[in-house]
Amino acid sequence: MPQEIVIKTEKQYEDNMIAVFELQEKEDLTAEDLKQIELMLKAGEKYEAEHL
């Protein structure tokens, strides 16, 4: 699993946020899922700060 997710385009940002939402909807979240959500949200926040 990557230690950091880098978002370079608006399309990647949108896909990332959709994936976060879908992962959060999962019934039994594992510790790995929670780490992935955290990485994805950090990447989204970084993209927002730099580009939006």
Write a short abstract of this structure.
By secondary structure, this protein is mostly helical. The chain has one domain (10-50).
What is the helix content? 55-70%
The main sheet comes to: none
Low confidence ranges? none
Strand runs, count: 0
Morphology call:
elongated
What is the multimeric organization of the chains shown? single chain
Kindly provide the radius of gyration, computed on alpha-carbon positions and rounded to a whole number of angstroms: 11 Å
Q: Topology as H/E string?
A: HH
Describe the 3D structure:
It is a single chain. This protein is an all-alpha fold. The protein has one domain. 69% of the residues lie in helices and 0% in strands. It has helices spanning 10-24, 31-51. Helix 1 (10-24) runs antiparallel to helix 2. The longest helix has 21 residues, at 31-51. The chain is elongated, with a radius of gyration of 11 Å.
